[in-house]
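Moderator note: this is an archived Q&A kept for reference. The question asked for a predicted structure of one protein chain; the sequence and the answer are reproduced below.
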Amino acid sequence: MFRTERRRNEKTGVTYPWLVRSTAMVNHFYIYCVDRDFGPFFLKFCTYFPYNAKLCINGHEYAKQQLAKKAIRFEALDNGVLQCDEPKRLQCICAGLSAEKIDALLRKWLRLLPHPYSAADRKAGYRYQVSILQAEFSLTQVLDRPVTGRVFFEEVIRENLDIGRPSQVQLIFDRRVNSRTPGRFRTRVITDGVVPSLHVDYKSTRIKQYHKEGRALRTETTINNTRDFGIGKLLRNLPALRQVGFQANRRLLDVQKISHDCSIGEDAFDKIVRPLEVEGQRASALRFGDQRVQALFAVLVVFSLQPRGFNNREIRVLLTQLLGLDAAGHPIGRMTYDLRRLRLHGVIERIPHSHRYQLTPDGLRIALFFSRTYARLLRPKLAEIMPQSRPIEAPLRRAFDRLNSEIDACCEAQRLAA
C-alpha cells in the first residue's frame, strides 16, 4: 500500500507530503459471488489507498458450469471432474479459459458491485489492472482401481525421495539450477491423517502430488511469482504461464520412477488366493497360509526340473509325506481335486495327450515365492517376535520388545496425565 509521510525542504524549511510504499494492518471486505459462467468466486477489496483488490476463481468450477450449460453429463470430484461423457469437449472447455474471459468476468462484476472507484474516478482513467498473484495448474489422473493406485503412489514416494535435488528440479522445471539459485531444494513428505503428499520446491514455485479422495492421483504446480520463469505478471501472460505449469506436471511424472508395478503383483496374488471361474468351471482359492496349499507348492517345486512332468500318483506320494498322512489311505479323488484347481489357477498345465502335468512359467514363480516366503520368512520371523518364545538376541525381537515397552510407557503416561 501507499502512505504519506511529512518531509521538510532543507533550504526553505517548508514541510510537504510525500507518497511512500509501506505496509499496514487495514480492513478488507470480501464479496462472495456465483457467476453464470464461472460458478463460485470471490473478490477481496482493501479499504486503504490504492485500494488493492484480489479476484480468486477456480478453473474447475468454470469447467463444471460450462458442462452443465452444454448439458454434458459429468460427475464431480471435489474441485475436479471424476468422469465425463465427452472428455474431449471437456478438454476444449479447460483450454478455452483465457485471460480475456477472466478480465471480462472482473469488468462485469465491477459494474454490478460497490467498489472504491466511483464513476468520476473511472472517467478520469482510474481502473483496475489485473496481474497474476498466484496460479495453480493441476493434472488429475482418475484411477479405475483406487486401492492399487494408493499402493502405487506410496511406492512412488518411497522411491523418489531425491526428487527435490537440484539435478532433478532442473529437469522438472526445465530451468538451470546453480549455487546462486534462491530457495531450498528438498523433498517433503507431509501426512494428513493417513494421506501422504509429496512436495517439491523451486524458488517460489511448489509442486504437490497426492492421492485425491482415494480416487485419483493429483499433481499440482503452484506458481507464486511468475518472474521465477522470466514471465511478466500481467494477465496477458497467462498462456505462457499455463505452458510452464502443465509441462512441470508432466515432467515430474516423467522423472519419477518405480521399480515394480503394484497392479501386476496384486493381480497375480489375487488370481491364486481367491476363488475363480474358468469357462464355467469353478475352482476354490489356494489360501496362502493353508497347510495343504503350502505342501502342494513345496512338492511342485520338487517336480519343476522333471522333463516328463508328474502324474497323480507321483505327486500324491510326496504330498502325503509332507502332510504326515498315509499315502495308501489318501483318496485319489482328493488329489484329482487339487490338480484341477491348480490347473484352473494357471499354476500347472496338462501335457497334451497324456495324464501328466507340468508347471507353467508363472506357476513356478508362484510356487517358489509362496513356499519360500512362508517357510523362511513368515514362520521363523513370526516365531521370533511372539511373547511365548524364549528371549533371543535377534534384531527383530529386540525391536518388537522395544516397541511394546514404548507403547506401555505411553499408555501409563496418559493415565497419569488424566
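Archived answer notes: The first helix runs from residue 59 to 69.
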